[in-house]
Predict the 3D structure of the following.
Amino acid sequence: MAGDPDAPVRRMLEQWAREMPDVDAAAMALFGRLSRVHAAASRAIEAGLAPHGLSRAEFDVLATLRRAGAPYRLAAGELAASMLLSPAATTNRVDRLQAAGLVERLPDPADRRAVVVGLTRRGRALAERAVRDHAANERRLLSGLSADEQRALAELLARLGRSVAGHAPGR
């Protein structure tokens, strides 16, 4: 079982075929595989960030600020929106990073009632090291696929994302 990460999905397919042969379980298998890959990739990504002393959540803040470009600052609402998070969740992450000296809160020059979050010099240096290692780690995770397979998978996942979003409740 440890040697074949797809064995549980195949076993599930066999069980459904035996127990309810009239049910097509192919979609369950696909989403099961997606869930298993996501869980394994998340563990590998967290492990890759650990040497930098960062959780994935903290890395997301630093990386979002770094990719915003100089001066590596975003309004708090923009930062939350860029990470698809609530303002409260963003505040918790920023609090931890500010306590660690990696980000700072500054008055927003456009709106004195608002705050801008920016990388400190130390935060920028850490973000750059972590992003380089993170990109290498993700390339390693994808190394079992050719470049063409990676492009095809990216397109298929984008199409699946649009399909799932189109069927989401409340849409």
Helices lie at 7-19, 26-49, 56-67, 76-82, 87-99, 121-141, 147-166. Residues 26-49 form the longest helix (24 residues). The radius of gyration is 21 Å.
